[in-house]
TrEMBL record:
The lineage of its organism: Bacteria, Pseudomonadati, Pseudomonadota, Alphaproteobacteria, Rhodobacterales. One of its GO terms (cellular component) is plasma membrane. One of its GO terms (molecular function) is ATP hydrolysis activity. This is Branched-chain amino acid transport system ATP-binding protein. The keyword Chaperone does not apply.
Length: 249
């Protein structure tokens, strides 16, 4: 189980994440939602330790992880994707999937290129995601959606117990959206705990066991998708942000 306690991240005077406490229960899909600028990605960055929190604690299966290095956290079973694909230039999809998963510390820079076991494992994951046909395509020739699937494949190489998905449906077309929803559901049914940041409400409502809602750095609601949908504070936060944007336009 992932526990976030009193998490804060300040950028100068901006309180991007301000005293957030929530959990992602083992075996469940938890969604972190909220209007633009609510602090979701910053919270994600602090949980995966791509960013150092200003204050607060993050616990994974009873072990405190907020002061560990990111590759140690990956080694404990927590892996994440990024909003923007981290596709490496001049490499095939297969090479990308293996390389992104390989480099965890400087010693890995001196490892042999790709072992037969890594190739087998990566091909198995590409098969699971239905993208073996693009295994030998240059990573930079992929569509936006294919890059999302490649990133998901790279994430699975580390045998995670919990995956953090940053906008897995961002910018994808409707048919790929269905595919991505199917993959997330299958991974969760296979035992993976999932924490998602996402704007696509259809995906959130269909997949999540629990939804945590952030606005202006704080958590304003938490519950089942049905509960948060009916919560006036959530409607206010989304409506308020829409009005702010309209006023600014
Ligand atoms: N590196 C940074 N330096 C300064 N301010 C930042 C930085 N990163 C984020 N912020 C600010 O922190 C706040 C929260 O941003 P964040 O990206 O976490 O929100 P979000 O909920 O993920 O938004 P979106 O849904 O638009 O991606 C915003 O006001 C943002 O401008």
């Amino acid at each position: 189980m992932l526990e976030v306690k009193g998490l804060c991240k300040y950028f100068g005077g901006i309180r991007a994440v301000d005293d957030c406490t929530f959990t992602a229960e083992e075996g469940q899909i938890t969604a972190l939602i909220g209007p633009n600028g609510a602090g979701k990605t910053t919270a994600f960055n602090c949980v995966s330790r791509t960013m150092m929190p200003t204050r607060g604690e993050v616990w994974l299966d009873g072990r405190r992880i907020d002061r560990l290095r990111p590759h140690k956290i990956t080694g404990m079973g927590l892996s994440r994707t990024f909003q923007i694909s981290r596709n490496l230039a001049d490499m095939t999809v297969l090479e990308n999937v293996i390389a992104q998963a390989q480099v965890r510390g400087w010693r890995d820079l001196f490892r042999p290129a790709m072992s037969a076991a890594e190739i087998d494992k990566a091909m198995g994951i590409l098969d699971f995601l239905g993208i073996t046909r693009i295994a030998h395509e240059d990573g930079s020739n992929l569509s936006y959606g294919q890059k999302k699937l490649m990133d998901l494949a790279a994430l699975l190489m580390s045998d995670p117990k919990i995956i953090l998905l940053d906008e897995p449906a961002g910018g994808v077309n409707l048919s790929l959206l269905e595919e991505i929803i199917g993959h997330i559901r299958k991974l969760n049914e296979a035992g993976l705990t999932v924490l998602i940041v996402e704007h696509n409400m259809d995906l959130i409502m269909r997949l999540s066991h629990k939804v945590v809602v952030m606005a202006q750095g704080a958590i304003i609601a938490e519950g089942t998708p049905e509960e948060v949908r009916a919560d006036p504070a959530v409607l206010d936060a989304y409506l308020g942000s829409t009005l702010d944007e309209e006023e600014a336009a």
